[in-house]
Design goal:
The complex is a heterodimer.
Chain A: H1 4-26, H2 36-47, H3 50-64, H4 78-90, H5 101-135, H6 137-141, H7 145-182, H8 189-211, H9 218-236
Chain B: H1 2-5, H2 19-30, H3 44-53, H4 64-76, H5 81-120, H6 125-154, H7 159-162, H8 165-193, H9 202-220, H10 227-244
Helix pairs in contact in B: 2-3, 2-4, 4-5, 4-6, 5-6, 5-8
The chains are: A mainly alpha, B mainly alpha.
Chain lengths: 237, 245
């Protein structure tokens, strides 16, 4: 049974939060509350289960390590996407509990899919501002302060709106699909979680290996620390 | 100017990059050029300076403070427009590469890995999120404040500020710390994500074997496939299998 009432109650605060997180990715203030580990936790907190949001955010953070936000390149927009993903993971989960394995998988799919589409919308946003720049070339060349300020505020406002719409769409689709599919999920939780953890940890490990190759000694340090970390897990287990 | 600097990429586009943002951030300083007359907005000196500063520009957003401070200084010192243009162009390259290396490839991943480490050792949601935000923004806001101050202080000699040891060698030290954090964080976070328990059981043992193999494959695919896209495909296949099965 799809819980439309709960969805309607959560939609406005989550969409606004997604807008603010989307704005943080590039436009303002880049304080990185748009990083998945923060944004998904916040998304989960709105639904009443920050822990479920955190688990989802930690997984997405592993992927975000691979796609760093270099200027003009196209990269996934994790901010709005992570808010929606965290909320999908947290739906139906009590405060301090971790999400059900099937919910987590759907939340992660929503997060990656929305981040992918978000990257595309960021490019479109930049093209729209570029189109406006071309239309206002004359005023910019004259140093018209109203044009400079107006263009800037338009860019900020459009980016906020982009994040709101993206977050709301991802949340609606994610929640509806996750609820509908939950009843037909057949894989045991431990196998599902094992699959998810293996995939995401591998992306993070590969990203670290590639990112720090230019700094001498980092790969050896990584491998040594990995051995220590694994030994700690064995001892704690 | 510092507050406006936080929005420097608000009108990012492929025509001017952050040029319009530079104009927006510098505009309060340029008002000093226009006097107090009713027609102050039409002052030709002010308008020429604003037009110059709103032209094409690109740099790392956190280090644009160096350019904003230095350009405000040279505009208010009434340097020649040709000299300002040349100076502006020479700033683009170094501010971009130094910032990318220090922030995007070192500081940001290091803070992300610290957050994953906190998650791995069992910290709660708010400790992880706030821990990340506080540590990251100590570096972020500190860099922005230092950059604006140094730019204003050095003016045309702002290249001296780029010789700062943190900018030159900081990425190397941060990168090493990040590598250690990564090594510690990944097994701990993975263990917590599967719900803890004995690492000798079948599922954790499978993770220990499969993760490095997949990681090696991803490293070998470098440049040909992005890991997050591959994972999207794998998760979709898992969903299909589980629902159809």
């Amino acid at each position: 049974m799809i819980d439309l009432l709960a969805l309607r109650a959560d939609l406005v605060p989550l969409a606004l939060m997604a807008g603010v997180a989307g704005l943080d990715v590039v436009s303002f203030p880049q304080a990185m509350y748009s990083r998945p580990i923060v944004a998904a936790t916040l998304g989960g907190a709105v639904v009443g289960a920050p822990m479920a949001g955190l688990v989802c955010g930690a997984a997405l953070e592993c992927l975000a390590l691979e796609a760093l936000p270099f200027g003009a390149s196209r990269y996934p927009e994790w901010g709005s996407a992570s808010v929606a993903a965290g909320a999908v993971a947290a739906h139906g989960t009590a405060g301090a509990a971790v999400p059900h394995a099937a919910d987590l998988v759907f939340a992660l799919l929503v997060g990656i899919g929305a981040a992918w589409i978000g990257g595309w919308t960021m490019v479109r946003h930049r093209q729209i501002i570029g189109w406006m720049v071309n239309r206002k070339r004359e005023q910019l060349a004259e140093g018209n302060p109203r044009t400079v300020v107006g263009l800037h505020l338009f860019g900020l406002g459009a980016d906020l709106l982009r994040g709101v719409l993206l977050g709301a769409t991802a949340l609606i689709i994610g929640r509806l699909v996750a609820q509908a599919a939950q009843d037909v999920w057949s894989l045991p939780s431990n196998i599902t979680l094992g699959f998810v953890v293996t995939s995401f940890a591998a992306v993070a490990a590969a990203a670290v290996w590639k990112n720090f190759h230019a700094i001498s000694g980092t790969r050896r340090l990584f491998l040594a620390a990995l051995a220590v970390g694994t030994a700690v897990v064995m001892l704690r287990g | 100017m510092l507050l406006r600097g936080f929005t420097i990429q608000g009108s990012w586009n492929y025509e001017l990059m952050i040029g319009n943002g530079m104009g927006f951030a510098l505009e309060p300083a340029l008002r000093e050029l226009r006097g107090d007359k009713a027609s102050a907005e039409d002052n030709p000196e002010y308008r020429a300076a604003l037009a110059r500063e709103s032209a094409y520009f690109n740099a790392h957003p956190y280090l644009t403070g160096l350019a904003i401070g230095a350009l405000a200084r040279v505009e208010l010192d009434r340097e020649s427009p040709e000299r300002i243009d040349r100076f502006r162009k020479t700033l683009c390259g170094p501010l971009g590469s130094v910032g990318d290396r220090l922030v995007w490839t070192a500081w940001l991943p290091a803070c992300s890995l610290m957050a994953l480490f906190l998650f791995g050792i069992g910290a709660g949601p708010w400790v992880v999120a706030l821990g990340f935000l506080i540590v990251y923004n100590l570096g972020h806001v500190g860099l922005r404040i230092w950059a604006l101050d140094a730019g204003w202080k050095h003016g045309l000699r702002v290249a001296n500020a780029l010789g700062n040891p943190v900018l030159q060698r900081g990425a190397n030290y941060i990168g090493r710390v990040a590598a250690v954090l990564a090594g510690l964080a990944l097994p701990l976070a993975a263990h917590r994500a599967v719900g803890g328990g004995s690492p000798i059981a079948a599922i954790p043992a499978g993770i220990v074997i499969a993760t490095p193999l997949l990681a090696v494959l991803l490293v070998r695919l470098h440049g040909r496939a992005e890991g997050w896209k591959l994972i999207f495909g794998l998760l979709s296949a898992l969903v299909l299998y589980s629902v159809v099965h």
